[in-house]
């Protein structure tokens, strides 16, 4: 592990906070699953971004001069026999490039001293349960010493702001990790499609969990630590449930399967969705809707480039989808009016109710503001045509090279009066991961086919 990368991030952060600041960043707590079993441990993303350290119970304290103190689990022969290796404070400076390291048991005793003489204390707001009261406790201890010359910080500031900005633009190393994560996930989608076609052809009882197992196998086989989020494997009408999870439902010949799954690799997420015919051949109605969603994704991809707004791909998708809904009779122009009316009044919401993308990075819905920081003052109010609520509109983020986002339009047709029957219960989403470049974007998840003919060819193979 290059300790330099993390030291450089800590210095860059410290330089933004100012010489007299101090920042406190805990890692994630271990989470009980039931009785004495924990969920598989996952570090906190901010903590890992600044340390590369994945053990639980860690704390970083970074002062404005860039000096970093780590608190970590002490070496403990007995506990290491049960739970595994611990780095320990003695080896931490050499291994992690921090300036000093202590046992986490010393945190409460040492923290007031680290806060002494600082003007502002920064920590992530609203993320770690109980952190605010711990900071209060340390400040109270320090205040008890003002008679002896201690100087208490006057300001508490949210560390998420500066850290989110740093994490939003991915460096070369992060982009490389994300390419590899997306490549593994794409391979897993390929395998799931092929397994599905083979099992359906052989007349086997295919269940959603068979495909889920195939994804997991491929993720782990390539060194991914875990799925980046709960995999969605939705057969037939289940695809219309946006947060469906892989379950026991049968995957039937003639139905579509929607898989939204991506692995996490070395702390970075991938997030891919493909929708394919269980038997390897789209029906005409399925293909018409599939090609509409694909055309809307093509439009969104074309709108993704440095200098564009975060909302541009969404608006491009919506335009194509809304026109398609009118052309196919999903929406009745006599009732909903023109394309502009459908967009203005959000009539397309009946079949497309989510946004076309989100930031992607260490977290699948990664941190980073969706508004342009330099234009926050330009707020305007308008009434939402669908809900009647007053919405405050602020200019969307301007895309820059190195930002990573998903592009994931879809269409979800629930049975309803006036909706052509051949489209009932079809749910389709197509999702790819894009690194913004000057000229456009690099789609890093295209190791799995996306064109209808290519999916059919793959499933025949
Ligand atoms: N899999 C979560 C998402 O697509 O946003
Ligand atoms: Mn997504
Ligand atoms: Mn997804």
Question: Explain this structure to me?
Answer:
This protein is an alpha+beta fold. It has two domains: 3-165, Creatine Amidinohydrolase, Chain A, domain 1; 169-460, Creatinase/methionine aminopeptidase superfamily (Creatine Amidinohydrolase, Alpha-Beta Complex). It is 35% helix and 18% strand. The chain has 14 helices and 21 strands. It has helices at residues 3-17, 45-51, 77-83, 92-96, 107-115, 131-143, 160-168, 172-201, 208-221, 284-302, 312-327, 333-336, 339-344, 452-460, and strands at 21-26, 32-34, 37-38, 59-63, 68-72, 100-103, 120-123, 155-158, 226-227, 232-235, 256-261, 263-265, 268-269, 272-277, 380-383, 390-393, 404-407, 410-413, 426-429, 432-436, 441-443. It has a six-stranded mixed β-sheet, sandwiched between helices. A three-stranded antiparallel β-sheet has the order 9-12-13. A hairpin with a 2-residue loop joins strand 12 (263-265) and strand 13 (268-269). Helix 5 packs across helix 6 (131-143), helix 8 crosses helix 14 and helix 10 (284-302) packs antiparallel against helix 11 (312-327). The two termini are 40 Å apart. 40% of the residues are buried. The model has no long low-confidence stretch (mean pLDDT 97). Residues 271, 358, 406, 408, 431 line the site of one manganese (II) ion (MN).
